[in-house]
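INTERNAL TRANSFER SHEET
From: sequence group
To: structure group
Subject: Chemotaxis protein methyltransferase

Please process the attached sequence and return the structure record in the designated field. Keep the field labels unchanged so the import script can parse them.
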Amino acid sequence: MASLSTPLLGGAIHERGVVKLIMQDEEFNYLSQLAFRESGIVINESKRDMLYGRVMKRIRSLKLNGFTAYCQLLQDSYTGELSAFINAITTNLTAFFREEYHFNFLQKVALAHFKHHNQDKRLRLWSAGCSTGQEPYSIAMSVQGQLPDWDVKILATDLDSDVLWCAHQGHYDDLTGIPQHYRTQYCANECHQHGYLIGDDIKQVIAFKQLNLLSRWPMKGQFDVIFCRNVLIYFDNETKQKLIQRFYAQLKPGGYLFLGHSESLQSLNTKFRLVGQTIYQR
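Return from structure group:
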């Protein structure tokens, strides 16, 4: 009986009449090392299928004949395809008011702290790894109206240029997660036939910028609040340690750091103090 999977030339197999491209070990190693070097994202053997699927989309889009050709493209036109490659491997799962307890803490505890301590009535917040924008918009809705006459600014950054474009548009098909009173106040009047637009009064307090967290940070001032949720899980411990130290330096004394529900600073050497569920204070 003939084998169901017959090797072909050019890094592919013939499987039940369908040609399936193969990602050789050398190609996997090259792509995973490139991802780590450029973004800090760790792609080990357990994520091989994930890498295969996402790079395959680029190969089809570019009409290349396999992984060897794609790796060669990255080498030949390094800066041209690199951005698309990094966009392809980043994970952008997000939602409005995800991990709602964080926003309750922000309103009831953190803002009360700042009302007492920030005599200049300035508040600076950073959504690091903002994805398609649901997180910074949720932060803005939580803060807006709570601090009348305050100077509030939110920096929202991500490595992925594609999701940043979506975030800047503020156009969503689904508003699941947004409390009804916020929908009425900030979204309902902007409804149109293809979805919903976030209102300008929310948009105007947010600046969306592309930023690699492992590169130099151009921000000069410190922040009162940093949200960096479900980002550390993609880094090794050495990278996490360096990043947490930089977050500590970038926060004002008394400022808050919000991490994802599965993240912790327990194994790291840090001066942060745990004050809530994955919430830390400098």
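Handover comment: The first strand starts at residue 5 and ends at 8. The longest helix spans residues 100-117.
Transfer complete.
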